[in-house]
Structure formats: structure tokens, C-alpha cells
Amino acid sequence: MASKDIIFNGVTKIFSKGDRAVTAIENLSFEIAKGEYVCILGRSGCGKSTTVNLILGLTGATSGDVRVLDTDPFASFQHLRGRVACVFQTDRLLPWRSVIDNVRLPLEILNLRNRGLAISPEAWLERLELGGTDNAFPHELSGGMRQRVAIARALVSDPDIILADEAFGHLDEVTGAKLRRDFRDVAASGGKTIVQITHSIEEALSVASRIIVLGKPGRVIDVIENVPAYQGEAREALRRRILEGLQYGDVREPGDPAVLEPVD
């Protein structure tokens, strides 16, 4: 049985906004195994970004237990540095640094510059179709190219877990689709655990091996296993099932017959 890289057990996160308490996620439980490619899918305001921040250790749970690589990411933030990387919706490149220096940044922060890397920063740029851009600056690149640099930066430290937080939704349809495929192929080729956060059903269906559907406030309403096995009519039925869940927030139980079985 594969080990679990990420575990949420009854997690609730409540924020204080003035004199109000706002529940971002409530009693959220799920597990993600090592090497899985999982999409967490949900509408705006369902707690996706809060879930990312909990995994990254940027905030702690109000109640419940979060475990990432067998440790509490908030209490042991330093322990997970370099082991969990994230590609955000905006590329967050430093405009005064060249492409190659942006990619090298995690190595500098983690003091890994002199360590023998399996894949060099230059090689990551080549893999992501950015050969020849080493000395360019972010303002000289297109949006899709900038996001490729951000992906190379996330991968260069050889993390165990890679998060993609709405990383492709702001790109045009053709560029976004191509970049999702390239990210899936490059990131998954190293046996990494990939968690992709999205509000797009089509994006989730196109890349994930498993989909966790969140409703408000931050609770699991559906889990779709073995996503690539759904083809043709079964895939259309699955798409309708997910859409209905997102619209009405109904919780689906394992084995629910409301969707056709995968095709062998």
C-alpha cells in the first residue's frame, strides 16, 4: 500500500473578520498517496486556497489534524522547506532577475547551489521549451512562458510534493491546455505527488488520476477514482455528475450509481 504524503483528518479552519467568524473549511478529511496526481476541484469560496495554505504550512488548522510527509506543516515549517513546492496563479517572478536566476532562486534560499542536482536549472528550461531564454527578463516573455519559468523554479529543488494553485486558469485556452499537458508530463515523470487546485471541470478531467470535489464550506462532496478510465458516454455522465455536485453541494457516497462505470 502506498504511503500517504498528505492527510487531512477532520480539519476545520475559522478566520476572524472583524467581529465575525468565517468558516473556510469544515471537518475536511482526505488522503493523497505518494505519487498520485490529484485535482482538488471546487467553486470560488469553497476553501481551495485555504487548503493549499494549510498544506504549505502558511496557516494552522483551528481543529483537526494536517499531516504532510508525516509532519505537521505549520508546526514544522522549516522541516518541509524544499520538499513542497507550489506554482501559483500568477508567476511571481522577480522582475530584476533573469530567467535562469529566477529558476536558481530556490537553490540559493535552500543553500543548494553547490549540491549535485539530478537536473540542472538549465536542463529544466530546456525540458519546458525555454531553451535560449536564460538571460531574458520576465517582461520580455509571454504569459505562458513566464508560467513555464515558474514551473521550472518549482521543480528545480527536486521537491516531493508539487502544488499547482489555479496555475493555468488565467491563460488563453490553447496556451493553458498545452501548458497543463507539459506540466503533467514533466512533473509526473519524476514520480512526484501532484496536487492541482482548479475550478475547471475540464482541467481536472484532462490531467488527474483522482478528483476530490469540494463544496462549501470546504467539505468533500465527491471523490472520483481512476479518472482516465471514464471515456465516451461514461465521461459525459461523470462531467454532469460533477457539475450537479458543484451546483447543489450534494454529497456523493462511494459506489453511487448516478454515474456510469469506467470503461475497461
Structure description:
The chain is of the alpha/beta class. The chain folds into 2 domains: 177 residues, Rossmann fold (3-Layer(aba) Sandwich); 68 residues, no CATH class. Helices cover 30% and strands 25% of the residues. Helix 5 links the parallel strand 6 and strand 7. It is globular and about 50 Å long. The mean pLDDT is 87.
Tell me the name of the CATH homologous superfamily of the largest domain: P-loop containing nucleotide triphosphate hydrolases
Q: Roughly what fraction of the amino acids lie in strands?
A: 25-35%
Instruction: Report the helical percentage.
Output: 25-40%
CATH T-level fold name of the largest domain: Rossmann fold
Side-by-side strand order of the widest sheet: 5-6-7-3-8-9
The SSE order reads EEEHEEHHHEHEHEEH
Distinct helical segment count: 7
Measure the end-to-end span: 23 Å
Q: What's the Cα radius of gyration?
A: 19 Å
Shape descriptor: globular
Poorly predicted regions: none
Largest sheet: 6 strands, mixed
Number of strands: 9
Q: Number of domains in the coordinates?
A: 2
Mean pLDDT over all positions: 87
Name the CATH architecture of the largest domain.
Answer: 3-Layer(aba) Sandwich
Keywords:
single chain; about 260 residues; alpha/beta; Rossmann fold; 2 domains; six-stranded mixed β-sheet; three-stranded antiparallel β-sheet; 7 helices; 9 strands; about 30% helix
